[in-house]
Design goal:
Elements (H helix, E strand, L loop, with lengths): L6 H19 L1 E3 H8 L3 H13 L3 E4 L12 E4 L5 E7 L3 E8 L4 E8 L6 H18 L7 E8 L2 E3 L5 E3 L9 E2 H6 L6 E6 H7 L5 H6 L2 E7 L3 E7 L2 E7 L27 H8 L12 H9 L3 H25 L3 E5 L9 H12 L8 H4 L1 E4 L6 H15 L5
Parallel strand pairs: 4-7, 7-11, 12-15, 15-16
Antiparallel strand pairs: 1-3, 2-3, 4-5, 5-6, 8-9, 9-10, 12-13, 13-14
Helix pairs in contact: 1-3, 2-3, 6-13, 9-10, 10-11
Length: 394
């Protein structure tokens, strides 16, 4: 059945499909677009005319055939529409500006010490945004919408209020009103940062099209996850960090005992290794922990290896539950290991006898991707681009 209930929707669908082909291939001739899309030449001519009228493409150079008529090539006008993504956590503030062509125009990261008050946070956030706006003032003329991926619990109308246990001074902070003060009259979408991180993979068409079921696991402030099925986010804030992995009686902030977050979150690892760090800080950062691990600090190796086993078993259980085709793990602390995936699978193989009866974990491809917290800002943009320019192949 043709996409949409009327001819205008079908035209938009075809136009967005051609735009996505430009994203994938850079420059295209009309003949190439016809061959790649399967549309008739009449449809291609109509779509290209609309894209030119809307100032979304322009003529460019392309590789000509040795024989025959010279082709005219086009490519997307990257800055015709741009999207802003914003996120933050205990360690910093991250902002990205991305074109509807999926080109990352600019990214700004402001690393911070742990904030102690709402006023301190707002002052740093204000400085960060003002500097970013000034640097990219020309692009903001074509700003279409803004996405903000935030940690913690989103509450009240349109997810505008934040409550976050690890930054309690921001409880009831109206994040939407704050961002609106910089961008009046612009549409602002507020989502949890795990949904934003998961949305980052929409920019990886090779991953989205190749794997039907994708489990993304992020190890940062805590261990959280998102699940993509058939190119759509099904679970946008999974709490793998609150799976029970130990008989420890230590109480988690969620009210349970034995949660993975008590052992394999940034805070728990930082507190555990701090007494054994050569460089004394209020709280060691991930890169310092990595350095100590890789240079052979035996006590830190012992602590992190033991806790990584808990993480590996939680990933194993999640795979049995969700039966993913691909598991992506990321997070700075995983950089301690030369090969985080091999270390994970080696542990599972050492503690579980593989009878061949349950194959969910063994059948999943596991990939480590060295991604920073800024992917939540980029993911906000990719989510909005997909929302505005998505299509169904027909």
């Amino acid at each position: 059945m043709a996409f949409g209930i009327n001819i205008d929707q079908r035209k938009t669908n075809k136009k967005n499909h051609i735009i996505d082909l430009f994203r994938l291939h850079g420059s295209l001739s009309k003949v190439q677009a016809k061959d790649l899309s399967g549309y008739s030449m009449d449809t291609i001519l109509s779509v290209f005319n609309h894209l030119i009228e809307e100032n979304l493409i322009y003529e460019t150079e392309g590789e000509q055939k040795q024989k025959g008529r010279r082709a005219t090539f086009f490519q997307l006008k990257s800055y015709a529409h741009v999207y802003l993504g914003i996120t933050f956590n205990q360690s910093g503030i991250y902002t990205s500006l991305i074109s509807f062509s999926n080109e990352v125009i600019d990214t700004k990261i402001t690393e911070t010490d742990i904030f102690t008050s709402k006023d301190e946070f707002i002052a740093e956030f204000t400085k960060h945004l003002n500097e970013f706006i000034k640097t990219n003032s020309d692009y903001f003329k074509n700003l279409r919408s803004i996405g903000c991926g935030i940690p913690g619990i989103l509450q009240a109308e349109n997810n505008r209020y934040l409550n976050y246990t690890l930054m309690p001074y921001l409880n009831n902070f109206d994040i939407k009103e704050f961002i609106s003060s910089f961008f009046p009259n612009k549409e602002i979408f507020i989502e949890h940062n795990i949904k934003s991180m998961t949305s980052y993979f929409f920019s990886h068409s090779d991953i989205i099209t190749r794997f039907k079921k994708i489990l993304y696991i992020s190890v940062r402030s805590g261990v959280a996850s998102g699940f993509i099925y058939n190119g759509e986010i099904i679970t946008d804030h999974g709490e793998i960090g609150h799976m029970k992995v130990s008989e420890s009686k230590e109480r988690c902030i969620c009210g349970k005992t034995g949660c993975l977050d008590l052992f394999f979150s940034y805070m728990s690892i930082s507190n555990a290794v701090k007494p054994y760090m050569k460089l004394k800080k209020i709280r060691p950062v991930s890169k310092d922990i990595q350095q100590e691990y890789k240079t052979g600090n035996s006590k830190i190796i012992e602590i992190i290896d033991e806790r990584y086993c808990y993480f590996a078993e939680a990933v194993h259980d999640a795979a049995n539950l969700l039966c993913p085709d691909l598991i992506i793990i990321s997070g700075a602390i995983l950089g301690c290991f030369d090969d985080p995936v091999k270390k994970l699978t080696d542990h599972i193989n050492s503690v579980y006898q593989d009878t061949g009866y349950v194959r969910n974990f063994q059948n999943a491809e596991i990939k480590f991707m060295d991604l920073g917290a800024e992917i939540a800002a980029e993911g906000c943009c990719y989510y909005l681009i997909r929302k505005d320019w998505g299509y169904e192949e027909v």
